[in-house]
Structure formats: C-alpha cells, structure tokens
Amino acid sequence: MALDWENLRLFLAVAETGSLSAAARKLRLGQPTLSRRMAELEESAGNPLFIRQTQGCVLTSTGEALLPAARRMAEWASEAESSLIPQPHRPSGKVRIAAPPGVAFEVLAPLAADIRTRYPELQLEILSGVATLNLARGEADISLRTRRPGDADLLCLAEVHCPVRVFVASQYAARLPAQPALADLDWITWAAPYEQLYSKQALEQAIPGLVPAFTSDDFNVQLAACRAGVGAMVLARALHRRSLLHELVELDLDLGPEAIGELYLVVHKRQQHLRRVQCVVEALRDEFARLEQTGSHVPSP
C-alpha cells in the first residue's frame, strides 16, 4: 500500500476541520478536487476514512487509526521545512504535553507563561488525565508520568522524587486539636472511577473503614474544596514558584515510608530531535532542576 503524502496532508485538514467544505476553504482548494483526492486515499487505504454527514465528516475506525501517523508526518514535514530556514529562527508549532491532573494544574499551567515568553510562536496543548497516553502512536509529544517507562523507545530525560504529605486550609487547621490523628480529619479524595489512584489507596491503608467527607473525579474541584476549608488532601509537596500549596498548611502527619511521589519527563526517541519539542523539554528540565535544588517537589495524582 503506497499512500500519497499530499493526500495525507489533505486528509489531516479534513479531520481537523471536521468537514470537506471547511478543509477546502482552509487549503484554498476546490471542494470537488478535495473530494476526489479523499476518494483516492480511501481507495489506497482499502477502507472508508470518513462517514459523510449533513453537518460534516466523522472519522471511521480506519481514519482514527491513520490520524496519529498523518499528524506525525505533518510535524516532520514542518520540521524539515524549518531546517531550511537560515538560523537563528524561533521554534513554532503545537507541542502536546500529557500529564496527571495535579501536575497539569500545579506545574504545567503556570510554567506555560515562561515557555510562551521564551518561545512566543509555540502553541501548548496540555492533555490532563489519569490515563497514560501512547507516545508511539503520537497521542502526545511529551509525557509527565508518575512511573518510569519500561519501553525501550521511550526516553526518560528528567525525574523528581518527593514526600507525599497532608495539606489543609489555614481556617481548617485552626479548628483541629493540637495533635490530630489521620482519622480525625475530614478527607477530600477521588471519586469513581479513580479510586485506584495512589492518594486514595494510601488513605484507605492508613485509615481502616475510611469514609471521605468530599470526593470528586476532578482534581481542580478537590483542590478548590481543600482551599475552602472542607477538609484535608494527600498531596505531594509542590512548593515551586507559583504553587497554590503556598496557600495551604502542611500538617505534621506520617503517611508511612512508602509515601513518596515520583515524576518522570518522557519523550519518544523519534520526537527528541524536533526543535519545538526540544525547547519545551529544556524548559521542563530547568524546572525539574530548580525543584531538586530548592528541595521543593511536584504533585502526584
């Protein structure tokens, strides 16, 4: 099967705009020509790539499978074009970073301001979620993970280790006894379907029969409840420059010797030489180094 790159470029435009007419306008191409090229590509692929609907196009399973590869080809084509531009040139394009919710909120969102100042032509896309995205399939360019990858094609470029502690709002801390026990606290933690995450598991091991006071499937909602004084959260110590944990009080409570958080900066070896990816990796490694030097750390999910 030989797929024409130009047809793949057109396919990507249709997939990203959601319709043949929108893609034709974006590409400044006649819609009949675009339809014909998509038919050629579908013939080469051996299966339909789109379901044509009144309001646009929806990818078929074959189209979904082809999309990550088409995106990577577009990225490499852009990088090849950039390599021909006389130096120095500023990196441009989209960089997708996958991270657990706490890391995305506490670390990546604030750090984006620094990255954009240094590289104003980069577009950052933060993919916040519990599931680990597949870098080999192009689901993200960079991944911040709480476990070291075992795949030989994935490179771990930096890592941070940190203690996991208990945090509350100052108004909540003022209501506590002098030396509270873990069971004395009103706990804020994960709701279904994320009960398997470390913070919930650590609490259930430390407090038999745990009944949380507040649960949510959204990290931002949990943190907002904690800041409002609803109760306590298990968080990795994250006292970096812009951390919201500066607003909270850390309690002197022991969660056990295994209460250690880890964070790994991971890229696929195929992506490591892309200039736009290198720039973001450099910024992330600098932030990791600052955290290690100051004794501050990053949050676990």
From TrEMBL:
It comes from the Bacteria. Residues 3-60 form the HTH lysR-type domain. The keyword DNA-binding applies. GO terms for molecular function: DNA binding; DNA-binding transcription factor activity. Keywords: DNA-binding, Transcription, Transcription regulation. It holds the Pfam family HTH_1. The keyword DNA-binding applies. Belongs to the LysR transcriptional regulatory family. This is LysR family transcriptional regulator.
